[in-house]
Amino acid sequence: MEILNIDNITMQFGGLTAVKNFELRLQSGELVGLIGPNGAGKTTIFNMITGIYTPTINRIYFKEMDITGMKPDKIAKLGIARTFQNVRLMENLTVIDNVMIGFHLRLRSNLASAIFKFPGYIQEEENIYQKSIELLEKVDLERCKMENAGSLPYGQQRKLEIVRALATEPKLLLLDEPAAGMNPQETKELMCFIQKIIDDFDLTILLIEHDMKVVMGICERIVVLNYGLTIAEGNPKEIQHNPEVIKAYLGVEAQYA
Amino acid sequence: MTINLLLQNIANGLSLGSLYALIAIGYTMVYGILRLINFAHGEIFMLAPYFLYFGILIFHLPWWASTIVAIGLTAFTGMLSERIAYKPLRDAPRISALISAIGVSFFLQNLAVVVFSGIPKSVHRPIFFTKIYQFGEIRIQSTLFASIGVSIIFLSLLLYIIYQTKTGLAMRAISRDIETSRLMGVGVNRAISITFAIGSALAAVGGILWSLRFPQIFPTMGMIPGLKAFIAAVVGGIGSIPGAMLGGLILGMSEILFVTFLPALSGYRDAFVFFILIIILLVKPDGILGIKVQEKV
Amino acid sequence: MKKQKEKICTIIALIILFILVYFAQNRLDAYKIRILNLGAIYVTLGVSLNLIYGFTGQFSLGHAGFMAIGAYVTALLVLPPYYKEVSFILEPLIWPFTVIHAPFIIALFLSGLFAALVGFLIGLPVLRLKGDYLGIATLGFAEIIRVIANNLPHITNGALGIKGIPEFTNLWWTIGVAVVTIYIIKGLINSSYGRALMAIRENEIAAEVIGINLTNNKVMSFTISAFFAGVAGGLFACLLTTIDPKAFMFVMTFNILAVVVLGGLGSITGTVIAAFLYNIFLEYLRPIEAGFNLGPVHFPPIPGLRMVSFSILLLVLILYKQRGLLGGIEFTWGGFFRFCNKLFSNKKSTEGSAS
């Protein structure tokens, strides 16, 4: 089933074209990498999918529904979750609260029953707590659940952010440089973790990453972006040998040298 | 509404607006550097005419000399308030500094009650400020020219300092990034002190001109003009000096014209000022000349 | 099990409070009761401001405005109709205010509802603004409300204000309302909705991306906050018995803000402590300006000296306690017992070493 259809979108900021005629179709269950040099427009694409920006031209469809111009919270409710390049946690809240907050959008109890702690709400809160603990166990963060999220080491903050995204029960997960700031051991664990959640949570993942070991290691398909334009698309092997890609990554520097 | 009356009111608006502009600059400069709404600025404004008044009454200084002393003393008070009440809070949450500013405001206002008494005083106005000029049917008091003229002189002086001197460069650098400026060897404390001195001196000029226009002085006289000048700074785009000037003029002008055209609603004059503020903020959240700061995602 | 124990502790504490209020209301002199009343009203005001500012992170300076609305609504509802006729001097009161009359509790509730309605209408457009801009816009609305009160003599009696409001407010009311306010706002904070509000405070973009609607949640928080400010305004009117627009100048908002910040942002316990201390200090500094004798030296009365000393106190406090008295820490029964245990074991060990 086709889960995401980005139909030839363009994003302009004033005179600057950040992304031009970008097309991407994701099938359910796929794990696709989005790579390219800094400033190529990768994060801008994430921002458009999650509703932080609205594309200047053309539209985005999620499960055949037009989500262009929708508010981020509405898109999240439809089932798209993401992490950020510069981790964005609720730093002064505890680790467990950071995960539980992710379940808020599926909360059924109304405000009054939450304030006055009606049995239905207590039951729901208990459920959320249990599910949060289970999620934290998956990334081995359960033991620091009462610590402030801001006090965690950087690599663990990244994991916590992924877990928070999973708490929103998404169908499509966008990961923005999940391995940045992780040591080789952590990166390896992360790769396993990503492959595992695809099956466990029935996910589709779009991944931005600079660490080529990660991208080449787990992605089935890779899209390469440069100066807002798609310059290549294919499986890891094809991408590694694509002259355009090599030029984009090495050519610019070769010119200066 | 005759054309003469309209002209008269435009002149009035300009003069009130230039006073707001003078006070607004102090708010905008301090905000630009410390991101602090200096709620004590209205009280600094109130001190100047008191200093002037007592300089003449007790020390028998001539009017001009007393004015100079008053401006100097006010500038010093402003500087001192920063050293005592804001400097220790530079690394504290911003709201703590705001509470401190409110504390300074309470303090100065009530100190004025204690020292100067709460009974309003009439300031002495030199004869050349009370003269009335007649242009056809328009009658304009000379304070009006004085306030516009003096404002222009001081504002040009300020622009010179900010954009042409090394101190001005330091101030602009700090307003961009205080930490980096410090690392680059900018004397941050000195520049901040000078900022407060200049802002307070301009407020002093504004306060003295104000007392020539409305010759009653009292300890709470700074509250409403101070608040309106702050609004002027926000309307113009807080942090921007040309913005403060523009905001002051817009506010002064619209206030006068509102009363002129809708005399029945003159009681809503202050509300109208806030109404303008809210409309401008909703249309252009960073003020007219403010720079839009967008968070990078 | 633990929850059960805490519930019992809370009930016991409430009973103790009940007894204390009973004795305070019957034994203390009118002056002390008045200070406690003011303190309790400030608790309601402070806790409600803490909800929108401390927990939701939205800088609001509009509390005096919501208070004013509540005060006028209550005053107009509880004043007996015959009294309204004689007290509106500038212009006669217009219908339907001439005839409506309601018991105190309904008046308070309607005060809250009306303030909440205005809060909702104001919040919808202005909560798009951020930081200091939001603060100044809400301050603007509060001032507009005050100016309107000044200019509607046939409803508010204009600048003269409304006099002779029945003195319904007593400790039962003020403490009772404060307890209900704390119960509801704490209940909100400790729920999924409260987490959503704190998420907005921490990081708006992240909150939005995990499905939290910014506008709805901010407006909800603002409206609830305005509701309690309105109720507090009603209590205030029936405590002072006289209200006029001057009572709701932005100095009022500053007082509430100072209470919240001095208590420690995001701490309800801190707000409660600061609210009472603030009013106690404000009142007990009164003798300073009334003139006093220190040994053989006589100090003449000096008006203004009270507020001078008070502002110095305020400055010293914020300079030395930059994050407020409690710095965001909250009272919990668990923490309370740990503290008692520590105190007890310390005592034991010192006793042991002494013998």
Topology:
The complex is a heterotrimer of chains A (257), B (297) and C (355).
Chain A: E1 2-13, E2 16-27, E3 31-35, H1 42-49, E4 57-62, E5 65-66, H2 72-78, E6 80-82, H3 95-100, H4 111-115, H5 119-138, H6 154-167, E7 172-176, H7 184-200, E8 204-208, H8 212-218, E9 221-226, E10 229-234, H9 236-240, H10 243-256
Helix pairs in contact in A: 5-6
Chain B: H1 3-34, H2 41-57, H3 63-86, H4 94-116, E1 121-122, H5 127-130, E2 132-135, E3 138-141, H6 142-164, H7 166-176, H8 178-183, H9 188-213, E4 216-217, H10 223-236, H11 241-261, H12 269-283
Antiparallel strand pairs in B: 1-4, 2-3
Chain C: H1 2-27, H2 30-55, H3 63-78, H4 81-87, H5 104-126, H6 131-151, H7 153-156, H8 171-189, H9 192-202, H10 204-209, H11 214-240, H12 250-263, H13 268-284, H14 286-290, E1 292-294, E2 297-299, H15 305-320, H16 333-354
Describe this structure in words.
- By secondary structure, chain A is an alpha/beta fold.
- Chain A contains ten helices and ten strands.
- Chain A has helices at 42-49, 72-78, 95-100, 111-115, 119-138, 154-167, 184-200, 212-218, 236-240, 243-256; strands at residues 2-13, 16-27, 31-35, 57-62, 65-66, 80-82, 172-176, 204-208, 221-226, 229-234.
- In chain A, β7 (172-176), α7 and β8 form a beta-alpha-beta unit.
- In chain A, α5 packs across α6 (154-167).
- In chain C, α3 (63-78) packs antiparallel against α5.
- Chains B and C meet through α4, α10 and α12 of B and α6, α12 and α15 of C.
CATH top level assignment of chain A:
Alpha Beta
Structural class of chain A: alpha/beta
Radius of gyration of chain C, in angstroms, nearest whole number:
22 Å
CATH evolutionary superfamily of chain A? P-loop containing nucleotide triphosphate hydrolases
How confident overall, as mean pLDDT of chain A?
92
Q: Please, how many domains of chain A?
A: 1
- Number of alpha- plus pi-helical segments of chain A: 10
Q: What fraction strand of chain A? A: 15-25%
Side by side, the strands of the main sheet of chain A go: 6-7-8-3-9-10
Shape estimate of chain A? globular
Strand segment tally of chain C: 2
* Assembly state of the chains shown: heterotrimer
- Largest interface by residue count? B-C, 49 and 44 residues
| Unreliably modeled segments of chain C | none
Q: Tell how many strands the DSSP assignment of chain A holds.
A: 10
Name the helicity range of chain A.
Answer: 40-55%
Report the sheet-strand fraction of chain C.
under 5%
User: Sheet with the most strands of chain A?
Assistant: 6 strands, mixed
Q: List segments of chain A where confidence is low: pLDDT < 50 over at least 5 consecutive residues.
A: 253-257
